[in-house]
Amino acid sequence: MKPVIIRTEGVTRCFPSGRETIYALKNVSISIKAGTLTILRGRSGSGKTTLINLLGALDKPTSGKIYFNGNEITQMSEARRDVLRQKEMGFVFQSIALISMMSAYENVEFALRVAGYNSGERRKRAEECLAFVGLSKRMHHRPSELSGGEQQRVAIARAIAHRPRVVFADEPTAELDTNTGLQVVKVFKNLVEKEGLTVVMSTHDPSMVEIADHVYTLEDGEIVDEQ
Ligand SMILES: Nc1ncnc2c1ncn2[C@@H]1O[C@H](COP(=O)(O)OP(=O)(O)O)[C@@H](O)[C@H]1O
Ligand SMILES: [Mg+2]
Asked: Which of 11, 146, 152, 204 lies deepest, with the highest CB count within 10 Å?
């Protein structure tokens, strides 16, 4: 049995909008097991980004609780949440935010510099992560010389470089064609199977869900299906 690494209990997130209140998430209770690939599936506006931001401690719920590794993150100070995010979590977003003046290698190496790795460790780990995503041969290219799928793989290498326990990916394949998107999801699947990483990824693309270990379907801020 794989242990639960993230759990939410009756999480609701509202946003005020003029005189009304938008319920982006309503009473969401989910469990994410360590060492699995979980997909949050749903149409645009269903609450995927809101949920990922909450799980990744980037936002706080209006009500309900969120636990990471047994600790309630909804009770933590900002400073503790920052440390948790920096040490235990990695993030990949829809629009690939690589530094355009830096090569693939430098993008990953820079993240390790920020994380406090020394130069020898940075070099070894950056090369290892780029090899993992299949980019050893192209690591000295800049983003503009790489395809969209390759750029997203650099973003994955960068997100895993500091050895987080969980990687959150919010629609990482939305700007890619289906085949390239599937390759990116397979990189995540490999990380889960070979490195024991936990990946939580959102998508509106039904063709991705077969690869997942677990799928939650969101509709209007509610979990309507679990597989
Ligand atoms: N900061 C915000 N302010 C107001 N409404 C928001 C905000 N963030 C999200 N929403 C609303 O919450 C709902 C869910 O949004 P979101 O989580 O971005 O969905 P998805 O990522 O599935 O497209 C939408 O109706 C959206 O308009
Ligand atoms: Mg979204």
From this structure: 152
Rounded CA separation 217/90 (Å): 23
| Residues in the 5 Å CB sphere of ion ligand 2 | 48-49
Strand order in the sheet with 198-203: 89-92, 166-170, 198-203, 37-41, 214-219, 222-226
Instruction: Indicate whether residue 114 lines ligand 1 (CB < 6 A).
Output: no
What is the mean pLDDT for each group of 10 consecutive residues in the chain (227 residues)? 95 94 97 97 96 96 96 93 94 88 96 93 96 95 94 95 97 90 93 95 89 96 95
Residue 209: what pLDDT? 86
Please work out whether the CB of residue 15 comes within 6 Å of at least one atom of ligand 1.
Answer: yes
CA distances from 40 to 19, 54, 204 (A): 30, 13, 8
In the CATH hierarchy, which top-level class contains the domain 4-96+165-226? Answer: alpha beta
